[in-house]
Amino acid sequence: MFRFNLRPALGSVLCLTALAGAPAIGDEIVIQNDTLTGGSAAAICPCFTAGEEAAVWLTSPCDGNIVAIQVFWRSFTGGSTISLEDSIIVYNGGVFPNPGSAKDTLDGPALNDGVLNEYRYKDENQTIPISIPVVADEEFVVSFRFANTNNQNVLLPSIVSDGLDCQPMKNAVKANGTTWTDACSLGVSGDWVIRAVVDCAGEPTGSACLQDGTCADGMTESDAITMGAVWNGAGSTCAETACVGACYIPATEQCVGGFSLATCDQVGGDWQGPGTDACAPSCPADLTEDGVLDFFDVSAFLDAFGAQKSIADFTGDGVYDFFDVSDFLDAFGAGC
Questions:
Q1: What is the rounded CA–CA span in Å between residue 219 and residue 210?
Q2: Which of 154, 140, 137, 158 is nearest to 54 (CA)?
Q3: Exposure b/e, 311-322, CB count within 10 A at least 16 = b
Q4: Alpha-carbon span 19 to 116, nearest angstrom
Q5: Whole-number Å distance between alpha carbons of 333 and 306
Q6: How many CB atoms lie within 10 A of CB 95?
Q7: Could you tell me the pLDDT band of residue 34, with boundaries at 50, 70 and 90?
Q8: Model pTM?
Q9: Could you tell me the residue ranges of all domains in the chain?
Q10: What sign results for the dihedral spanned by CA atoms 85, 91, 94, 95?
Q11: Fewer CB within 10 Å, N or C, the chain?
Q12: 225 vs 193 pLDDT, higher one
């Protein structure tokens, strides 16, 4: 029986193993609810018995085919032997928390501990590729079914969540192998790290913020550009997008929230994008704030970088590395 018993992972680096293929390429798009990234901590759930399932509700951004499934698998101590589990099932959307009929099944997935396992074939000989047709804005369900019980044993590996915020109507559990239940209501604190890779036959769609602050679903990036709108990315929806944001007004040197793109343009402002509530510096590389980019700004960056001060964290990820240096140089090159 599913018993919620969440354990934090050891801040492991998220990496990819090629069990049955390679990372998404070309026109492939990874569809996910979770926000887990390399180096971030995952939350392990050793709370499943054989026959139970963990599932995510995903939405296709385009007409195309599901060509791969990804599952993050982790034990508390790491280094467990390969786990051979029951299956990965792709269902039609159904009515949450109950999936619809099965679209396809991958039997006997083998999982390595501590990595994002990716599957591109339905058989161990890698002769039958996964190819499940989907259409733009179609909701589908990817479910992981356990063959081995790990309930209450923190030494055994299991699936993980990002541990941040469990989104409603996005994560479910088939408890006792019979009853589908909202995972959030069971105490799961984040989104399951179960993902699908969709190979888009055409240009992917998502939501777009129009200039008047309204939102339109099912837009391609080309559609958005033609209309002077801001595209919010493949698979995005208006339900999860705020189409007003912060506006920096140079004439008054103020940052004002709640502006649409058109309103910000009317006052000669610099719109910061959908959902923003703060304004980026008008000249981020001018660390000395004297209005001139020169050697002293470079020196100030190097000093701040060496001391790991926040002004040198140009990527905003809390890590001081090559990417901060690269972003600073790009901003310096762009000028004020």
A1: 11
A2: 158
A3: ebbbeeeeebee
A4: 10
A5: 21
A6: 8
A7: very high
A8: 0.63
A9: 7-200, 203-241, 244-280, 295-334
A10: positive
A11: N
A12: 193
First to last CA, the chain: 61
Give the whole-angstrom CA distance, residue 177 versus residue 1.
Answer: 8
CB under 8 Å to 39, separation ≥6 — which residues?
A: 11, 13, 14, 319
* Tokens encoding 155: 């030494």
Rounded distance between C-alpha atoms, residue 62 and residue 160, angstroms:
27
Which span out of 40-44, 245-249, 304-308 was modeled with the highest average pLDDT? 245-249
CATH topology for 7-200? Answer: Jelly Rolls (2.60.120)
Q: What is the pLDDT of residue 281?
A: 67
Q: Give me the mean pLDDT over the 237-266 stretch.
A: 87
Task: List pLDDT tens digits, range 279-298.
Answer: 866 677 887 777 788 888 88
As a whole number of angstroms, the distance between CA 128 and CA 79 comes to 30
List the Cα angle 112/235/137 in 5-degree steps: 110
Which residue has tokens 């912060």?
Answer: 246
Measured distance CA(235)–CA(220) in Å, rounded: 10
